[in-house]
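Re: beginner question about structure tokens

> Can someone show what the tokenized structure looks like for a real chain? I only ever see the sequence side.

Sure, here's an example I had lying around. Input first:
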Amino acid sequence: MQLLLALLILTTAARSDDPEPSPAPGEPEASALETPQEPMLEAGVLSGFGGLIGAQGVQIEAPPYDGPRLTVGVPEVRGSLTVQQVRAVTLMHAKAVRYCYQRRVAEGLDEQGALTVRFAIEPDGAVSKVKVRGEGVRDEQVLGCVRVRFERILFSEAADGRETRVTVPLTLELP
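And the corresponding structure tokens:
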């Protein structure tokens, strides 16, 4: 009975030919009551490269980052995985790699420069044979931490069952 009553009310309201009520004196017109144009930070925000995406898909600019910077260069890839696959996974782990440097800079490290990370991706996607060479950044704690971060990365399995050899250039810069 309640469902029938609710349906009757909805169909009556949908058929109403009455014009929209005019606003009370001093209230803005309905067209002026649009959603705000400035992005709002809401629950469900996802972080990404270049900003944040809100729950409703609104681009939200991230505050400027003024700490140590990490630049990931284009990897050199020999094997069954593509440059795009390797670069995408490497970029997903960039924050963890940057943390290695960021932590030491906070402790007073003043080195900056290039790192070269060489490693193998096994057929099952596991990383092995990681070697990190620093040019400008020679701090053993940074180099060791970067090595461990790369050892923990897992790539997709190789379709042809072959190992992939990779060289990734990184640049670490002070703020």
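Each token stands for a local structural state, so reading them left to right follows the chain. The chain has a mean pLDDT of 79.
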